[in-house]
Amino acid sequence: MRKLVLAMALTCGSALTLTSPASARNPMVGGAAMYPTKTIVQNAMHSKDHTTLVAAVKAAGLVDTLSGPGPFTVFAPTNAAFAKLPKGTVENLVKPENKAMLTKILTYHVVPGRVTAQQIAAMAARHHGTATLKTVEGENLRFMKHGVLPPTSEADRGLQSPIRASAPHR
């Protein structure tokens, strides 16, 4: 299976912005506050930057799974990340006959436990700019630090970190 290299690029740093001291606990993602009392899926459903991800999670039948007991961390591709895929990829993946493949791809973006952007940055600093985590699928998920890492949103049963790019790595 091809591995993905998720580049936490400088542009990713703008994905989450804190708008006021009161919102320091609830970062804004896609124009919506991310609340630690809501599940990862509930928070993503309110983000205008994650509409494609939410549609894919629903098509894969993962809403209950991602709302279930955790904790886990979801590296949530934004609409901009999905837009970088070859034309027709998303439309093909959300077809019922491709549910198994879509599920595998989406769960590749989930790691057990609570892993913050700061923890990934610290791991990368200890390992020459690269950090590797095990996904819930048992695959290696490799992060390469490029610029500023975004803050991580706290959610009930886990964390959510937006990503704007993913590239195949062989």
Can you describe what's shown?
- This protein is of the alpha+beta class and 170 residues long.
- The protein has a single domain, classed as FAS1 domain.
- Helix content is 29%, strand content 26%.
- It has seven helices and eleven strands.
- The strands form three sheets. The protein has a four-stranded mixed β-sheet with strand order 7-8-1-11. Strands 6-5-10-9 form a four-stranded mixed β-sheet. The protein has a three-stranded antiparallel β-sheet with strand order 2-3-4, with no helix packed on it.
- Strand 9 and strand 10 form a beta hairpin.
- It is globular and about 40 Å long.
- Residues 1-24 have low confidence and may be disordered.
Chart the SSEs and their pairings:
Layout: E1 3-8, E2 16-17, E3 28-29, E4 32-33, H1 40-45, H2 51-59, H3 63-67, E5 72-77, H4 79-83, H5 89-93, H6 99-107, E6 110-112, H7 117-126, E7 130-134, E8 140-145, E9 153-155, E10 158-163, E11 167-169
Parallel strand pairs: 1-8, 5-10
Antiparallel strand pairs: 1-11, 2-3, 3-4, 5-6, 7-8, 9-10
